[in-house]
Amino acid sequence: MRRLLNSRIWCGLFLLLVMNLNTSCGGQTVLPPANPDFDLSVAPGTLPVTVGTSSSPLVVSVTGKNGFTGAANISIGGLPQGAASLPASPFMVTAGTTQQVTISIPVAAQTGTVSLLFSATNGQISKNASLNLSITPTPTVSTFQNGPVLYLETVTGGETARLGLLTTWGGAIVEASLNGSNPVNSDDPGREVQVSLWDGDASYSPLWGWNLIQAGDHFFQGSPVLTQVVGPDSIYLKSQPIQWAPENFGGGPGHPVVGDAYIEEWVTPVPGHGRAFQVHYKITHFGSDTHSIHANEFPAVYVNPGFDTFMYYGGSRAWTYAPLTPFTMPQLPNFSPYLNTAEYWGAYVNSNNSGLTVYTPGAFPYVAGFDAGVTKDFSPVATFTWQPGTVVESDIYVIVGPVTDARTVIYDLHARGPYPSAVAPFGAVDTPRTGDTLKGATVPVAGFAFGTSPVASVKIFVDGILVGSAAYGGFRSDIAAAFPGESGNCEFQFSLDTTTYKNGPHLIVVEATDSTGKLAIFPTVHVDISNP
What is the CATH number of the domain that holds 476? Predict the structure, then answer.
């Protein structure tokens, strides 16, 4: 009897405990709130670093759960002897934020892979994450020539990365290879990795207008190299690009037509990254004419079949190693929409996610491309106006190998920035259009413009005479939708009084200037004024 009574007492105490932990609301059990907690993550999974250098930034993230808003104390274990982190371990990361960390490796460090353990604590909460640090030897750099191709080569351990420039085709890049695998397509002079200049006022149908190609023309005539200097670890070339369609400029087969510009390029390895090459371009327009704003190929990137998937980061968490965005380019005659490359790079990769990555920090964060079957293409959005004496200088970076490794190189390059942008504002005149007949005292001149720096002014010219400045900053939902990341506050509007002009043909030109002084001259609008 006593044993039964004790059992009932314990049962009652248990039921009382359960009732205290679980309350009933309308017959539904309501659980008590969970304890505050957090998750720890470290990216990327593998971080390459060369002895005697600092690594690309890795990203430590602390994500709060169940109302956790505090900070975690982060310590790093497993660092090689003599290595150090910046910030120094331990350091604090607040929930909902990230911390970039670099690891410096001494020259005497052993090469190979080292596992780093990241530990995060806050009171009784403890979380761990790991990262593999791949320590590589210092690359050996050399240059050499094989036939008409100049090579810049790096050898790191057992792998070889190589950039090849074809001197009979204006120094265009015809090879960007890792251990002999070359994604670059060079079947004709319109491809390769190269610069191509365009004119917004030119027509390209049915006759092909002003289009200077670094490599050469569609008759396979190459652009001449005027100067070449090959050093022990660098290559310099100066070329004069020729018209893609010489027959429309008085030339033809056997008679290429040189353009009114020079292209200079300096090619060097990226220190600490054996698979990466810097290409510094300087373009000088010495012609006496003006070529209005157009998306130039700066550069064009063409790849071979087999490198079929375009990879980029198109999300809203740039520079955090968030998952990449794969994309299949549409087949010609279709072109891709403008893809939002928030980290300013794109890559074509094979089934092993390895291939060719191009980083263009001076362009807009958008690319477009297509699939031509025998080749695939992409180009960053880079807009220029070529006036007499215009000089444009900017860097691109060509990286070979796995796209995930290329991304770590780009993070390092980004951390070394900022990179001044050379591109002019992008935009268009929507109204009026060429061929329109105008009449009245309040004819709208309207369109949009945005830049890598804020647009400072939009000026309106009629027949070469400045007539006023447009109101700027109106919202354009179509632009915000087409160019993710742009606010859409880029509309310009001006009211033109046509009654002050004689009836007949007139020219309207819009010029947009950004806060750094870069000028975009939009294509000329040809109109007729007809007032009573």
Answer: 2.60.40.650
CA–CA separation, 289 and 259 (whole Å): 12
Q: Which domain holds residue 466?
A: 426-529
Burial of 22: CB neighbours in 10 Å, binned 0-12, 13-18, 19+: exposed
* Residue 103 domain-assigned (yes or no): yes
Preceding peptide of 206 cis, ω within 30°? yes
**Which of 240, 286, 288 is closest to 265 using CA atoms?**
240
Q: Which two tokens stand for residue 27?
A: 């017959």
How many domains does the chain divide into? 4
- Taking only the tens place, the pLDDT of each residue in 146-177 is 999 999 999 999 899 999 999 999 999 999 99
Q: How far apart are the first and last CA of the chain?
A: 117
**What is the pTM (predicted TM-score) of this model?**
0.91
Task: Quick: pLDDT tens for 4-40.
Answer: 334 333 333 333 333 343 444 455 666 667 899 999 9
CATH number, domain of 374, equals 2.70.98
Distances (CA, A) of 417 to 136, 395, 518: 24, 12, 20
Residues 196 and 306 occupy one common structural domain? yes
Cα 312 off chain centre by: 8
Tell me, yes or no, whether 393 and 303 share the same domain: yes
CA angle, 154 then 401 then 196, to 5°: 85
Q: Cα 458 to the chain's mean position, in Å? A: 27
Strand 91-94 versus strand 71-77 pairing type: antiparallel
Paired tokens of 390: 């215009």
